[in-house]
């Protein structure tokens, strides 16, 4: 049992007067608790403490159950969002693959078309060069014929006036042939440029 401060003081003073030894009285009074907290625990106190502990543990269990439920809900939501994201990513990749396949097909078609146009241009250029060679050969033949005619004219020419007229004729013939050659070259070059522009 516990003693109040007044009772402890009265007992302490009376025992000191009776026994005469203050230290011995202090040791004796130390065996009696000064308050409720200093007294030994009883079975009731332990049962009460056990009940409080049980209530605390039950509360913690409830909170743990609520937390577990919330975590399961959060994990389920995260799994759902991850599944949606995975589906969207797969859809995007499939779309990109389709676009890449279309682009590859278009590029192959374009390259095939360009190859065909280049072959046509090569064929046309060969034809043009063959034509130019033929026209050049004809022009050379005409020039040889013209020079032979000039030589004959010079051989038959007896007067200076005839020689001057013949010289002007030769100069006009050479100017005409040069103009024809330039016109042929310009025409061929224009055709090549037009084909190059059409291909681009």
Strand content: under 5%
- Shape verdict: rod-shaped
The computed structural class is mainly alpha
Count all strands and give the number: 0
Helicity range: over 70%
Quick structural gist:
The protein starts with a helix and ends with a helix. It has helices spanning 5-19, 22-29, 43-156, 160-199. It is mainly α.
Structure description:
88% of the residues lie in helices and 0% in strands. The chain has 4 helices and no strands. The chain folds into 2 domains: 1-38, no CATH class; 41-199. The chain has helices at residues 5-19, 22-29, 43-156, 160-199. The chain is mostly helical.
Give the arrangement of secondary structure elements.
Blueprint lengths: L4 H15 L2 H8 L13 H114 L3 H40 L1
Helix pairs in contact: 1-2, 3-4
Summary keywords:
200 residues, mainly alpha, 0% strand, rod-shaped
């Amino acid at each position: 049992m516990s003693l109040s401060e007044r009772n402890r003081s009265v007992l302490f003073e009376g025992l000191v007067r009776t026994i005469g030894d203050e230290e011995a009285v202090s040791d004796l009074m130390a065996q009696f608790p000064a308050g409720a907290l200093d007294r030994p625990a009883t079975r009731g106190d332990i049962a009460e403490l056990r009940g409080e502990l049980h209530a605390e543990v039950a509360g913690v269990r409830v909170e743990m159950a609520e937390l577990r439920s919330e975590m399961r809900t959060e994990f389920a939501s995260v799994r759902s969002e991850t599944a949606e994201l995975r589906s969207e990513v797969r859809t995007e990749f499939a779309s990109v693959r389709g676009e890449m396949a279309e682009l590859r097909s278009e590029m192959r078609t374009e390259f095939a078309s360009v190859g065909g146009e280049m072959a046509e241009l090569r064929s046309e250029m060969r034809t043009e060069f063959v034509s130019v060679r033929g026209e050049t050969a004809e022009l050379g033949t005409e020039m040889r014929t013209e020079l032979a005619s000039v030589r004959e004219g010079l051989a038959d020419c007896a007067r200076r006036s005839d020689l001057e007229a013949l010289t002007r004729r030769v100069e006009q013939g050479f100017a005409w042939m040069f103009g024809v050659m330039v016109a042929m070259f310009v025409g061929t070059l224009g055709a090549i440029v037009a084909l190059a522009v059409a291909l681009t």
